[in-house]
Design a protein that fits this description.
The chain contains two helices and 25 strands. The chain is mainly beta. The strands form seven sheets. Strands 3, 8, 11, 13, 14, 16 and 17 form a seven-stranded antiparallel beta sheet that branches.
């Protein structure tokens, strides 16, 4: 009987730990089922929005809608005119959002290396200022006092999807470390929001396991990639510690190579200006490859 009780206790503890780990590893309120009333409006639990900022105008860019896919609810983001103050972007962040800069302040604890960021969406841009969906994995670097980007998965909202569809965005890893935080950023519009741009999302998840990583050792010096964000042109400028054969690739959030250059053996300085206006707005990764190494830079096109 004692042995049975010990085994039963062990199994119970295992189940509790497993459930906690599973809950910890996933996105808080990923299906947008839980909302908190703030009196005149609601906010999705564990998500930062601009509803507080626009509440005095009686305008809310993040709203609860139904039915969910699946579940009762989904998140509806809509860029709206907020009482003569211009159009406010429909933005939500998995954590805290700076309502002044419209940038994420924090995310949620996450310590895995997923392969894909998935979910369900509908969206419609009414201008060239298109929004985006992205997930960024980061880790605090105590030496530099900054956060290191581990991986990014994202996609601009080009075109339109006017019925519920599944999206699956591959993570592009830039660092061999294990993250401690994930930040999910959802925006109905780009830098200049346009009235009625909308993004609906539901059933978000991080899944799979990424294998392989680029070498963290730098082989370039004085590497400059600017401006960030880029609009029309991106300047790439660097020197090498020693002569070597170089390739450059610009990869979009789906892993597609949209630009590449192979200057061959570089003995000193490399400089190139890449026309960016031909590419869709969103997050890209610049990959600089030598014979057996790679260096990564994140590029944002607006």
């Amino acid at each position: 009987m004692k042995l049975f009780l010990k085994l039963k206790t062990a199994v119970l503890l295992f189940c509790i730990i497993t459930c906690r780990v599973g809950a910890y590893a996933q996105i808080p309120n990923s299906g947008f089922e839980n909302w908190t009333s703030m009196g005149s409006y609601e906010i999705p639990d564990n998500w930062g929005t601009l509803n507080e900022k626009t509440a005095p105008s009686g305008v809310f860019t993040a709203t609860k809608a139904s039915p969910g896919m699946p579940g009762n609810y989904f998140l509806k983001l809509t860029s709206k005119n907020s009482g003569g103050k211009g159009v406010t972007n429909g933005i939500a962040v998995s954590g805290k959002l700076d309502t002044s800069t419209l940038k994420p302040i924090s995310g949620f604890p996450y310590t895995q290396r997923p392969a894909v960021f998935t979910g369900k969406w509908q969206y419609m841009p009414f201008s060239s200022s298109i929004g985006q969906v992205s997930a960024t994995l980061t880790k605090w670097n105590s030496s530099s006092g900054k956060r290191d980007t581990i991986a990014v998965a994202g996609q601009p909202l080009a075109g339109m999807i006017m019925s519920w569809s599944v999206f699956s965005l591959n993570f592009i890893y830039q660092n061999p470390g294990v993250p401690d935080t994930c930040i999910i950023y959802l925006a109905a519009s780009g830098a200049v929001p346009f009235q009625n741009d909308y993004l609906w999302v539901d059933s978000l998840a991080l899944s799979g396991s990424a294998a392989g990583i680029y070498s963290p050792e730098n082989f370039t010096k004085e590497l400059n990639v600017f401006p960030i964000p880029a609009k029309e042109n991106l300047s790439i400028d660097f020197s090498l510690y020693k002569p070597m054969h170089i390739k450059l690739k610009l990869v979009d959030a789906t892993g597609k190579i949209v630009w590449e250059d192979e200057p061959g053996i570089i003995t000193g300085h490399y400089q190139n200006n890449v026309a960016m206006a031909r590419f869709a707005k969103g997050i890209y990764i610049l990959n600089i490859l030598s014979e057996n190494q790679s260096e990564i830079k994140k590029v944002l096109i607006e």
